[in-house]
Amino acid sequence: xxxHEWILQKVLRGASDGNVGFDELCDLLRRLGFDDRHRxxxxxxxxxxxxxxxxxxxxxxxGRAKAYQVSDAHAAFVVEVPELHGCMADGSTYAEAVAAAxxxxxxxxATARELGRLIPEPRGRLPFA
Length: 129
Fold this sequence. Notes:
Elements: H1 3-13, H2 22-31, E1 35-36, E2 44-47, E3 55-57, H3 67-70, E4 77-80, E5 88-91, H4 94-115
Antiparallel strand pairs: 1-2, 2-3, 4-5
């Protein structure tokens, strides 16, 4: 089994979310045919023809991928933007999560425009938000 196959299996099993390296996850997405649309800062934006979601990744301290980017969030505030498939951000406080989401939303929209994709209209607050 190659290193890339091992990392893919690790991600698919979901057993060690906190131990997936950020660079390894980015490399895996590239090998799976995703385009890396780095926008500056620590965020990486990935897209692939035929897949609706635009994947936004940001490393955590220590060079690992944030766990929610591999599966679920633990001990963090997570902001998800339902209209923008795959658009989410997190922070250790509500304010940090919202500030990060504003950056990610702008990056998602810029990437969608570059790809010629439709940008959905906001639907407003969700009833359970």
